[in-house]
Amino acid sequence: MAYITDYQYYDNGGSSPSNANWGSYQYVSLKDIVNNFEMMYSGEDKLIDNVSRNQLVFYAKRAIQELNYDAMKEIKVLELNIDESLRYILPYDYVNWVRVSLYRNGVLVPIDINTNTLYAKSYTQASSGALIFSSDYVVLDESEIDKDRLSGNVNQDSEEEFNSQEQRGYKIDTNYSYKGMEGKKTPSFSIDRASGVINFSSGLESELCILEYVSDGMERGDDLKVSVNKLFESYIYAEIKYQILNSRIGVQEYIVKRSRDERRALWLNAKIRISENPYKILRKIRV
Questions:
Q1: Rounded to an integer, what distance in angstroms lies between the CA atom of residue 76 and that of residue 118?
Q2: Confidence check: pLDDT of 213 > 80
Q3: Distance from C-alpha of 214 to C-alpha of 234, rounded to nearest angstrom
Q4: Model confidence at 150, in pLDDT bands (50, 70, 90)?
Q5: How far apart are CA 103 and CA 97, in angstroms?
Q6: Residue 86: is its pLDDT beyond 50?
Q7: How far apart are alpha carbons 254 and 74 in whole angstroms?
Q8: Pairs from 131-139 (Cβ < 8 Å, separation ≥ 24)
Q9: Residue 166 CA to chain centroid, in angstroms?
Q10: More confident residue, 98 or 284
């Protein structure tokens, strides 16, 4: 991002919204990354020449996506009410979940993922077992397990109730699940990635749910809004350079290897810097 005045940073120059630039200086935009690479790393007198801007944009965006998946861990938070379907539509930029919580009386109450199946698709069948098609050739119908989950009839925790160390819970085979303080089954969720929803256990209708998740960082495909933390800027340039050199015919292997090693070293260095407390790093330097 270009340098801006205090007035632009704190009050967006008097425009709305006033918080538009808060925190922005710690990031570098996709546009600036591509412009800087063209200026500093490509040209007739450089190792990389004759590279299109579209290629640079592609490799830069792929690098930013990988950073969001693994290294930056910049968590987005979404708040929604669970409706009567006991489902929560995943946000458009969802990649993976970090934590799912219920917001009760001013407190976040994390809930656990349930690895048991709480959802399914079904086919309408005749008594002979043959599939029955509607007029528009659709056979999908609401499944029995979905109906039971919504009604609360499905036993999501167990087959056998037990008592252990003054805690009451349920048991399936050798797996135990304890009841909450109010004597209710522990709330849980499961993620149906193909359908793009989170399914919740019964009894959670109208609860306020907080989803913390990892985004791909692509901002709905708007390249002008895509950015990356400045700690990873050098790595992005190294990644673009490596990908271009590695995909070209005739580039000597030692050049590709040197580029690969440089990109890996910058990745590890940036990952350490962004994950560690600066005071810890300072103490290491002093030692």
A1: 26
A2: yes
A3: 23
A4: low
A5: 17
A6: yes
A7: 35
A8: none
A9: 39
A10: 98
Amino acid at site 35? N
The mean pLDDT of the chain is 77
Give pLDDT, residue 166: 41
* Number of C-beta neighbours around residue 149 at 10 A: 24
User: What is the rounded CA–CA span in Å between residue 188 and residue 195?
Assistant: 18
pTM of the full structure: 0.64
How far apart are alpha carbons 29 and 79 in whole angstroms? 27
Query: Residue 132's pLDDT is what?
Result: 64
Joined tokens for residue 192:
């149906």
- The dihedrals phi and psi of 238, each to the nearest 5 degrees, come to -65, -40
Tokens read off for 140: 């999908």
Specify the pairing of strand 167-172 against strand 188-192. Answer: unpaired
- What average pLDDT does this structure show over 206-221? 87
Lowest mean pLDDT among 43-57, 69-83, 158-172: 158-172
Say how far apart CA 237 and CA 239 lie, in whole Å.
Answer: 5
Residue 284 is encoded by which pair of tokens?
Answer: 């290491």
Ramachandran region of residue 43, left (φ > 0), alpha (ψ -120 to 50) or beta?
left
Secondary structure string (H, E, C) spanning the chain = CCCCCHHHHHHHHHCCCCCCCCCHHHEEEHHHHHHHHHHHCECCCCCECCCCHHHHHHHHHHHHHHHHHHCCCCEEEEEEECCCCCEEECCCCEEEEEEEEEEECCEEEECEECCCCCCCEEECECCCCCECCCCCCCCEEECHHHHHHHHCCCCCCCCEEEEECCEEEEEECCEEEECCCCCCCCCEEEEECCCCEEEECCCCCCCEEEEEEEECCCHHHCHHHCEEEHHHHHHHHHHHHHHHHHHCCCCCHHHHHHHHHHHHHHHHHHHHHHHCCHHHHHHHHHC
Judged by average pLDDT, the poorest of 27-31, 105-109, 116-120 is 116-120
